[in-house]
C-alpha cells in the first residue's frame, strides 16, 4: 500500500513541540519530506532525530516568527531551498499568553497578533505563488475551539478567529488556482511535556464534552494528514473540529 503523502514536501511551523511535532512526525511517517521549524534548535533536532530514526526524512530550519514579514519570507526561502519546493504549509506556530483585557498591554497585543496572525499571513503570501506555479498545494491553518466557545481570553481567541476567517478567504482566493486551504480547530490538546497540574486543568476545560478530557496531539495530526493528502481533494475552506465535541455538544451530568 502506498503512503498517503509519498513524494510530498511539507513545512510545519512550530513543530518543536506538541501539535506541530505530532504533525511533522505523522507527515514523515506517511512519506512526506518535512521541514521542522521553531526557535528552539535543541527540541527541533530531537524531532528531526525521532523522524529519521523511524526511517523518515526531515530537516530543522530555525525561525523566529514574530510577525516581521522578512522573517516569514526568510523561512519560506530556507524551506524551499531544503525541500526543493513546498507542497504543504502548516501554519501551526502560536502563542497563548493568559491575559485578560485588563492585563493586556500593547506589546503583548502586538506579539500575539504577530505570531498568530501576521507571521502565517506573510508565510502564506511567500509560499503560495510557487505552489500555484508547480500545479497546486495545500495550506493548513490552526484555529481553536476558543474562537467560538468563549472562556475569557479575548486576545488569543480573536487571533484564532482571524485564522479561521482567513482560511475561508484564502480558499476563495487560491482554490481556483489549485491551492486548497483548510483549518483544524483543536479542543484542549495536552502535550506529553505538561506536568500533572496543567493536565488536570486542561481536563477540567473539557468537562461536559463527549470526550470529557483533553485530547492527544496525534488526533490533530491525523486530521492534518487527511487535509494534506488527495483524500481531501474536494475539501476547501473548511474548519475541521477535532475537539472532543467541545464546541458542538453539551453532556449534562445525570441527563
Ligand atoms: N494545545 C491546545 O490545547 C490547543 C488548542 C487549540 C488550538 N491550539 C493551537 O495549536 C497550535 C499549536 O499549539 P501547541 O499546544 O502545540 O503549542 P506549543 O506546545 O506551545 O507549541 C507552539 C509551537 O510554536 C512555536 N513558536 C512559538 N512562538 C514562536 C515564534 N515566535 N517563532 C517561531 N515559532 C514559535 C514553538 O516553537 P519554539 O518554542 O521552538 O519557538 C512551538 O513549537 C497553536 O497555533 C495553538 O494556538 C492549541
TrEMBL record:
InterPro entries: NAD(P)-bd_dom_sf, SDR_fam. Keywords: Oxidoreductase. The keyword Oxidoreductase applies. GO terms for molecular function: oxidoreductase activity. Belongs to the short-chain dehydrogenases/reductases (SDR) family. PANTHER family: OXIDOREDUCTASE, SHORT-CHAIN DEHYDROGENASE/REDUCTASE FAMILY (AFU_ORTHOLOGUE AFUA_5G02870), SHORT-CHAIN DEHYDROGENASE_REDUCTASE FAMILY PROTEIN. NCBIfam families: PRK07231.1. This is Short-chain dehydrogenase. It comes from Lentzea guizhouensis.
Amino acid at each position: 500500500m502506498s503512503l498517503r503523502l509519498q513524494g510530498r514536501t511539507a513545512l510545519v511551523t512550530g513543530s518543536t513541540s506538541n501539535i506541530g511535532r505530532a504533525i511533522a512526525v505523522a507527515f514523515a511517517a506517511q512519506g512526506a519530506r518535512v521541514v521542522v521549524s521553531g526557535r528552539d534548535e535543541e527540541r527541533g533536532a530531537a524531532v528531526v532525530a525521532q523522524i529519521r530514526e523511524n526511517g523518515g526524512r526531515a530537516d530543522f530550519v530555525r525561525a523566529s516568527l514574530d510577525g516581521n514579514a522578512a522573517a516569514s519570507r526568510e523561512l519560506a526561502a530556507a524551506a524551499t531551498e531544503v525541500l526543493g519546493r513546498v507542497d504543504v504549509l502548516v501554519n501551526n506556530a502560536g502563542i497563548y499568553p493568559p491575559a485578560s483585557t485588563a492585563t493586556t498591554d500593547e506589546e503583548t497585543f502586538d506579539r500575539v497578533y504577530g505570531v498568530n496572525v501576521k507571521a502565517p499571513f506573510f508565510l502564506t503570501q511567500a509560499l503560495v505563488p510557487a505552489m500555484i506555479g508547480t500545479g497546486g498545494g495545500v495550506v493548513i491553518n490552526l484555529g481553536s475551539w476558543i474562537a467560538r466557545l468563549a472562556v475569557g481570553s479575548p486576545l488569543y481567541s480573536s487571533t484564532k478567529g482571524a485564522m479561521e476567517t482567513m482560511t475561508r478567504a484564502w480558499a476563495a482566493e487560491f482554490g481556483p488556482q489549485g491551492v486548497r486551504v483548510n483549518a483544524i480547530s483543536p479542543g484542549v490538546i495536552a502535550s506529553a511535556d505538561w506536568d500533572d497540574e496543567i493536565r488536570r486543568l486542561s481536563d477540567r476545560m473539557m468537562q461536559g464534552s463527549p470526550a470529557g478530557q483533553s485530547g492527544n496531539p496525534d488526533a490533530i495530526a491525523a486530521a492534518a494528514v487527511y487535509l494534506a493528502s488527495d483524500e481531501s481533494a474536494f475539501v476547501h475552506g473548511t474548519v475541521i473540529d477535532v475537539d472532543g465535541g467541545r464546541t458542538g455538544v453539551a453532556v449534562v451530568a445525570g441527563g
